[in-house]
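User: Could you write out the 3D structure of this protein bound to flavin-adenine dinucleotide? I've included everything you need below.
Assistant: Certainly. Input first, then the structure.
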Amino acid sequence: MKISNPTEYRESLGKLKRRIYILGEQVENATAHPMVIPSLNAIAETYNSGDEPEAFDILFADSHLTGKRISRFTHIHQSVDDLVKKVLMQRLLGRRTSTCFQRCVGMDGINALYSVTYECDQKHKTEYHKRLKDYIAWIQEENLVVDGAMTDVKGDRSLRPGDQQDPDMFVHIVDRSDEGIVVRGAKAHQTGALNSHEILVMPTVAMREEESDYAVSFAIPSDTKGVIFILGRQPSDTRRLEDSPLDMGNPLYSSQEALVVFDDVFVPNERVFMAGEFDVSGLVVERFAAFHRQSYGGCKVGVGDVLIGAAKLISEYQGTWKASHIREKIVEMIHLNETLFSCGIACSSMGKKTPAGNYEVDTLLANVCKLNVTRFPFEIARLLQDIAGGLLVTMPSEKDIRNPEIADYIEKYLKGVGDVPTLNRIKVLKFIENMTVGCGAAAYLTESMHGAGSPQAQRIMISRLAELDKKVELVKKILDIT
Ligand SMILES: Cc1cc2nc3c(=O)[nH]c(=O)nc-3n(C[C@H](O)[C@H](O)[C@H](O)COP(=O)(O)OP(=O)(O)OC[C@H]3O[C@@H](n4cnc5c(N)ncnc54)[C@H](O)[C@@H]3O)c2cc1C
């Protein structure tokens, strides 16, 4: 692996010449920008072997393409064990960072495309699977971060891609030549986009024949001509510019999302993985969504572990730990969190081999997993706020704490349990503020709701996959109804 540690990762990104806008200004070196650094730190943890005893086994895998040791984020799952280890890796990194570490979308993208390109080639005599394998072998060797870009901006939600007033509301092919294709459009909410070496584009919905120019999948380096990044805002994000790390709550780590525009971008043939095969576009959406819905049963659980720790710590600092209702609430948080983990493990354990030879998760259980994720983190956050008390949104700033004229008042009046420094109490409360209403809530709450599809998308899949008629047969058989 060429990039083998966090420092090399940061250096490799710094070399890219990209067109990036942050707070209205074009930025030359985003990796040094305070709005970006915490998210860069989070993704850099995926390059950190770490000191957890289990880390090495779950952060790395053996490539089925080259036999070499690679980052699991670039791996194609070869077994149920691989699927389970993916979830364990995500929980571990959620625990380390307490945020989204941004590298799962690319992993889920290559895994979804792996089986779909194989099936597409069988059906259409195309050569996408070999191209994709070459691409995967390359990102494994280089150890690159890939932004998995599925969500189009979509315009009027009541209209199909081909019926939009503006045809660019979904990424589509605007020109074709012997060398490749030219694409136009934009992908919204792109996790870790500014922190990625590559962008892997996939369609958002199943396309129809008349929409075949929208059935497009490809990969490009993130500094390709015509690609523009516009960093998204998060609640209280400009605290990063205030030189007050305490007020950031989670000073080291954060998530990142951006709008990525493709302004007539050329993609050479060797990086095109679908260009018009509308009848397989829906498969990519379904399989990517299933892998990504599995992901949430790991990453958000790791974050939940940190929040449960914060609940106990703040209750100790404030003298409420011995109260039975506090302990019950913490047990409830654990129950919710472990239920999510159980779903992540269940859909992995029930995974199956595809015709291409890789393993995919059980789609029904992955959708159940994600539907729970659209709810349980909100309940965990609600219980945490209950335990924390109102101070989490009424605290003075770090600058007040640093002002000698008032610092003693803050130390005296915001003290909880006698022998705990007031600053420790404030640190934990600022963290809870970040995670439940600040920047951290973007990844822990809103992403839990909408990431990998809004709740209705999972309900549709659940109703489609539940085999309801078979259940009717069960009851009929027991009751002898013909
Ligand atoms: C923090 C975060 C990170 C993300 N990261 C990524 C990423 O890395 N890569 C990526 O590709 N995507 C990413 N996403 C995008 C995510 O998949 C979408 O947010 C999700 O699919 C919902 O799309 P939307 O946000 O456009 O909302 P909408 O689709 O507008 O949904 C809003 C509401 O409208 C409903 N709705 C939508 N269309 C219809 C319709 N036709 N009829 C009836 N109801 C409708 C939905 O059910 C929902 O209730 C991320 C999202 C978030 C919030």
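Residues 105, 148-151, 154, 157-158, 187, 189-191, 257, 442-443, 446-447, 450-454, 456 surround flavin-adenine dinucleotide (CB under 6 Å).
User: Perfect, thank you.
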